[in-house]
Amino acid sequence: MNADIRNKAFTQDQINKIGNTIIYFSNKIPDLNRTKILSLLFIIEEACIKKFGHHFFGIDFQLWKSGPIIKDIFIDLSYETPILLNEFIKQESEHSSNFIANKTFNNDEFSDNDIELMDLIINFASEKSASNLVDHTQSPHSLWRKSAIQYGVLESLETDLLNSTEYTIDFSLLFDNSSMPSYLKERFEESKENLEFVKHLKR
């Protein structure tokens, strides 16, 4: 599958932001393997909505047994040499499952708030293992669990009847019975409308 076909999943701005986010993390988080990357991408997306009321990347996360997953990034990181993210990262060595930066971090896609948020995530994750991060994304009150319950697939995921689904994480569940300020929900709804418009343009 070539990069041009795969790129239809994202805008170029999204690819640049995903790639540079991984570069930023790779410079400060040890043993950055596929599982860590996938977990961290979700953690920062969720944290951005909680803190600022809008998406960090504006992409879908599928509901899989292993957690909230960006399907195309999972596939890309499964190759010996990534295709979609080839410009940004590479395997540390032939026998390593860890990824390192393929170039320097470019902050063109990032606001001051974005950088602040990435630093907060690094402080949270720098000493955590990949399994620790997966456990965090699947904690009892997590969006992964709430979304799995909403779609009726929690038991199937937990008992290995399903490894993956096409369902996406419902970030609006963050605002159900929540003490989060109403203005964040309003920002989130505006953000959702903008994302739907972008998706429509890509069809």
Ordered list of secondary-structure elements with their pairings:
Layout: H1 3-6, H2 12-26, H3 34-52, E1 62-64, E2 67-69, H4 71-78, E3 89-91, E4 99-101, H5 112-125, H6 130-137, H7 143-151, H8 154-158, E5 164-168, H9 182-202
Helix pairs in contact: 3-5, 3-6
Quick recap:
By secondary structure, the chain is mainly alpha-helical.
Notable traits:
disordered N terminus, mainly alpha, three-stranded antiparallel beta sheet, SocA_Panacea, Antitoxin SocA-like Panacea domain-containing protein, 8% strand, globular, 203 residues
End-to-end Cα distance = 19 Å
Mean model confidence by pLDDT = 91
* Count of the domains: 1
Shape: globular
Low-confidence stretches: 1-5
Radius of gyration using CA atoms only: 17 Å
* Helix count, DSSP H or I runs of 4 or more residues: 9
Compressed to H and E, one letter per element, the order equals HHHEEHEEHHHHEH
Helix content: 40-55%
Structural class: mainly alpha
Largest sheet: 3 strands, antiparallel
| Beta-strand content estimate | 5-15%
Across the major sheet, the strand order is 2-1-5
Count every beta strand, where a strand is a DSSP E run of 2 or more residues.
5
InterPro entries: SocA_Panacea
Protein name: Antitoxin SocA-like Panacea domain-containing protein
Domain Antitoxin SocA-like Panacea: 40-144
Pfam families: SocA_Panacea
